[in-house]
Amino acid sequence: MIIQKQYKFYAAHRNEELQDKCRNLHGHRYGIVCHFQVQRTGSYSTLFSDFDDKIGPFLKEYYDHGMLINVSDPLYATLKNHMEVHGEDLKLREFQGPTSVENLAHQLFTEITQMGFELVRLDVQETDTSVISYDRNDWERDNAAQVFSQTEPVKATS
Fold first, then answer.
1. What's the domain count of the chain?
2. CB neighbourhood size of 133 (10 A)
3. Three-state secondary structure along 14-65?
4. 25: which residues sit within 8 A by CB, 6+ positions away?
5. How far is residue 91's CA from residue 29's CA, in Å, rounded to a whole number?
6. What's a Gene Ontology MF term here (predicted)?
7. Phi and psi dihedrals of 143, rounded to 5?
8. Domain holding 130: CATH number?
9. CB atoms < 10 A from the CB of 68, how many?
10. Residue 46: what pLDDT?
11. Is the pLDDT of residue 157 over 60?
């Protein structure tokens, strides 16, 4: 059986590798739809709140109103220096590669899976007309190819 849950968060990013409008700092209202494989063990399988109690606070703490940034982006060093000099604490979600929607899908798939959920597919909506569907096969293939990895361990909230 599949349970589907939806979440939203706002975040800024840029893709410094591109030579188009996405090279500029800009933001999105990201929408994610999680598709979980669950097993019925009586009258129900999993409470919706089991997902919400972990995923909602995690997205709020680490993603919402933050900036997704590649640690190799020259802007990253500038922002870190700014934070040190001015004592500001900007919310930076570090990536080991470009902050493309594909890499965001991989990172979120990893983090949600590490929370103990059996995620089978993740849809990430970047704009009103652009959605990527990322499934367990994509995730396993990307992990085997080591195309992307996180900089810090996932901290799932209880």
1. 1
2. 12
3. CCCCCCCHHHCCEEEEEEEEEEEECCCCCCCCCCHHHHHHHHHHHHHHHCCC
4. 12, 13, 14, 75
5. 16
6. 6-carboxytetrahydropterin synthase activity
7. -65, -40
8. 3.30.479.10
9. 23
10. 83
11. no
CA distance 30 to 75: 22
Domain range for 95: 2-40+47-145
Q: Does residue 104 sit within a domain?
A: yes
Q: Which two tokens stand for residue 93?
A: 């979600």
pLDDT digits (tens, 9 = 90+) for 24-47: 999 999 999 999 999 888 887 788
pLDDT value at residue 151 = 41
pLDDT tens-digit series, residues 62-88: 999 999 999 999 999 999 999 999 999
Q: Give the closest residue to 4 by CA, choosing from 38, 42, 39, 41.
A: 38
